[in-house]
Amino acid sequence: RQPLVTADNLTCHFPVRAGAFAPKKVVRAVDGVSFTVAKGETLGVVGESGCGKSTTARLLIGLAPVTSGRMLFDGQQLGEELSMRELRRGVQMVFQDSYASLNPRLTIEESIAFGPKVNGVDPGEARRIALDLLERIGLDPGRFAGRYPHELSGGQRQRVNIGRALAMRPRLVILDEAVSALDKSVEAQVLNLLADLRRDFDLTYMFISHDLNVVRFISDRLMVMYLGEVVEIGPAEALYERQAHPYTAALFSAMPSMDPEARTEVPPLAGDPPNPIDPPTGCRFHTRCPFAESVCAQAKPRAMTISEGHQVACHMHDPASGHGKVAA
Ligand code: SF4
Ligand code: MG
């Protein structure tokens, strides 16, 4: 499948100051990530908070500045053939907090029609789009069109946010913890809705979540991030079967319903990730990795392909790295 998004060594660094007189430091929120999102697929993105998932998403929608690297959307390079404005039209984002994303003074029909109107669609057509979308997101227009956000449940509000995103006719929808605040039963309904909409509207998803069970349900491929870097990426089933990177293995070992047979023998993660202002040298995971050797603190691991489409950046998988426990 053709890539819709190609990220090529993207970085997003931003300056911070701890206090008025403290020296400026640089947060390496995203630090040289490369990946693609194929047309029509769902790429799941996982990692602890602060690993750069949300910043990566914000880069793709133009809400965070690209410090270096290239980004292509449908073959067109951002800043060259493709303007930020055009990029923003093609990408929409849905966030966790369904209430904060909606204007409390607009009815849900008005909320969904708002984006198209601002973009020059005439009011009658915008209204037709909104009513049609209400139907598609499972909210009967006759009952719901005139309601206000506070009159809806969390799940209904999140359906409206999805409707608002789709009203802009995006190619890519980024879902950042979009079902995380919902009850389990509602979450399942919204996930099924998302799967239907992806097919019906020919969408591509980037699905960010801390919940590996949810990610498994919806993703075709999975990308694992640690401290601003991609440590493992591959077909979701391959990753659920075999976590090649010790960090991925540790994340999965904490997963409640994981089949014990399939579980990699790695203790769950202890402590917090190090500060992205001053990340560890070499492999950034070496301060927490049970398999770390001296090479790990010295050299940054290369991304190695271990099976079709499955890449991992860990010295254990690189026969040339000198790591003692070379994977068979
Ligand atoms: Fe662990 Fe070394 Fe692999 Fe990093 S490169 S994950 S420290 S074994
Ligand atoms: Mg986040």
TrEMBL record:
Transmembrane parts of this sequence: none
Domain ABC transporter: 5-252
Coiled coil residues, start to end: none
MF terms (GO), sorted A to Z: ATP binding; ATP hydrolysis activity
Record Pfam families: ABC_tran (PF00005), oligo_HPY (PF08352)
Main location: membrane
Keyword Flavoprotein included in the entry's annotation: no
Recorded catalytic activity of this chain's protein: glutathione(out) + ATP + H2O = glutathione(in) + ADP + phosphate + H(+)
Cross-referenced PROSITE patterns: ABC_TRANSPORTER_1, ABC_TRANSPORTER_2
Keywords (A to Z) from UniProt: ATP-binding, Cell inner membrane, Cell membrane, Hydrolase, Membrane, Nucleotide-binding, Repeat, Translocase, Transport
GO process terms (BP): peptide transport; transmembrane transport
Listed EC numbers: 7.4.2.10
UniProt KW Metal-binding keyword: no
GO cellular component, one term: plasma membrane
Membrane topology: Peripheral membrane protein
Subunit: The complex is composed of two ATP-binding proteins (GsiA), two transmembrane proteins (GsiC and GsiD) and a solute-binding protein (GsiB).
Similarity comment: family membership: Belongs to the ABC transporter superfamily. Glutathione importer (TC 3.A.1.5.11) family.
Name of protein: Glutathione import ATP-binding protein GsiA
Species of provenance: Algicella marina
